[in-house]
Amino acid sequence: MSDPPHRRRAHASSSDLERYAGLFAERTRVMRSSAMRDLMAITARPEVISLAGGLPDTSTFPPQTFAAQMTRIAQESAAEALQYGPTEGFRETVDCIVEVMGAEGMLPDPDDVIVTTGGQQAIDLICKALVDPGDAVICEAPTYPGAIPVFCSYQAETIQIECDAEGMRIAELEDTLERLEVEGRRPKLIYSVPTFQNPAGVTMSLERRRRLVELARQRELLVVEDNPYGLLRFGGEALPPLYQLDGGDFVLYIGTFSKILSPGIRLGWAVAPPPVMEKVVLGKQASDLCTSTLTQYFVREYFAEGRWREYIASLGDIYRSRRDAMVEALGRYFPPQASWTEPEGGLFIWATLPPYIDTSDLLARALREDVAFVPGQAAYVDGRGRNSMRLNFSAGDEDEIREGIRRIGKAIEAQVELYGALTNSATSAPAPAKESDMDSPALPRPGVESEKDGGDVLPFRKAGGA
Amino acid sequence: MLKGGRSLERGVSLRSGARVEDALERLGHEVLPLEADGEMVKHLAAERPDVAFVAMHGSGGEDGTAQELLEILGIPFTGPGVAACGRCMDKVQAKHGFRAAGVPTPDWFAFNETAFRELGAADALGGLEERLGFPLVVKPSRGGSALGIKFAESWFDVPEALVSAFSYDDRVLLERFVDGRELAVSVLGDEPLPVVEAIPQSGDLYDFEARYEIGRTSFVCPAELSGGETAAVTAAALGAYAALGCSGFSRVDLILAADGPQVLEVNAIPGLTDTSLLPQAAEAAGMTFEDLVAKILELAVDGDQSSRSGDAGRATRGARSSA
Does the domain formed by A35-59+310-422+455-462 have CATH 3.90.1150.10? Predict the structure, then answer.
């Protein structure tokens, strides 16, 4: 018997269903779930190579270190580690956070820091403190897929600003702010992942960082800098975080231990000026009182050991090699019409296919080949991104990555060939060239680029290109 | 209780399965939940259940595959037999069945992927506008829950829609778009249940997400129809059910257009989740979910073999009295 029989909570009858439906809060109507959830359920099959997740590789963390630290906590601090802690987090945890931020040139006041249950909770708490239903929230296009449900659950109107190789297009942002001002509106926050962006893998240029910070200051707007990947750089020059450029007046900062240590410990943080922090702390009290005490003790022990920088460097080496394997495989197995980003850090590559391929449907074909990715649509609120996909290179080893990309390439090739067969000989029908199709903004559109920021929108590297 | 499987509708199946399991337990049955995987036949052969409740959707479970195995093992099962499942699963086959039986269904053309790749079928698409008109609906022939279904407003959309549909199956159909009310008639045994109308709250298509998210679609049951409309819709549904040789239970999806009902498809094993239409229809007929499950089980155990035309050798082993 694969499943032992057990008692289960009674399920709703359809009249109950109607009753529940009548009880749901208005915000649940805009909370997004998706068909993708069902498709993703299939990716859990062991034979599937999943390039869909955003998982760091935790297998390289030495089990002996983990055992020694947890043992020490049990022996020396069991009662405290099993107790509630302060809502803001332990001062010792905050000291570790200040150390991590210092590694990227930031010097936050420890009093401005709150320890959260992952970076995800920091996004939630900031929105909880700032966003009323109908408020405008600005983010990148594409944006972190996990931020969208947060914006939706606070009933924000999410406005997405196009990205190119230098990150968010600030000129477009300015235009949008002007337009909103004409409507008498001011966005509550501008959410950005400026470094090794999820999902696009691009990094905002220094010039744009400066302009964004300047804009926030001039207009007294809050920028939320989400920086989970900044320390996972394996190429190029490090750029100052927005928080450092601004000094922390108009930039709220979100960090996490998820990608540099472990996502399982659910430890992240937010940095905000005192008036904002006060509201964030109240919000956190209502949400979960405090972040896990036990895992805060773990981080304290881990940092006391003093080898955290080495560990991050070792992760960087692993991910660099995996990125190289993915980029190489993309060049070999993706068709010439495809293009993709080549990140200098982080976990993701963003690939864009010809506009006639819907990657949600492609996923169905890819799953028959036992491979999965995240369809680009997940990173947009408005149905854009249909011909794009997010590919993760941190979770699997080089062989898995190559094989995964080979299988996706095979599925794409089938689509491309079919489309060719459908259009080349369809002489009786007009050729379906969609020059004016705004549904595929992530594709380079030569001749349409009057944007003063310059350069193609995402992505910027063509298949077979140098 | 067979559930899960590898189809794209696996998640829906697990939800259907969980709900039915509860009902079966409350009815006093001993339930053996079985994930449809490589061990399924081994477990079935070892456990010899009195009856198999099939709550699988999509390929593998709703297309007759699992049913065929159950026949070989001599285990009675719920829902339609092998041949009917096969006909329901393949929309093109089903539509031929409707046409042959005089059941109204929208005009269509069907193509295999090889027809485009090797036979230059694209040249035949020119006839579409004249024969079907725009907009038209492009669907994978085998697939459920609206996955891969696209509207083509004009020529420009057709190749892209075909590429999407061919992601799910190597055969697709292009169907005349029929504007009207979206209705579903569930048939239990040979009795039609009250008509359900599905009214999507957003978007122009009753899509996968709307189908399984509470609150995304509103349902009216019984649908507000005139006596004549109800009669026409029910007659079309029963005609479709019979045309494909269904038995036990199934759900017929139709559009009620200005000039009468048009049958789109028959779901051999409709969803039994919290948001599914069959349980709602049963409730409108005064049945609880347990009543519905008990009835489905009863139909399986002493099933009317004559209605399973084409299903030779259907097991007739009676249930032991544990039921």
Answer: yes
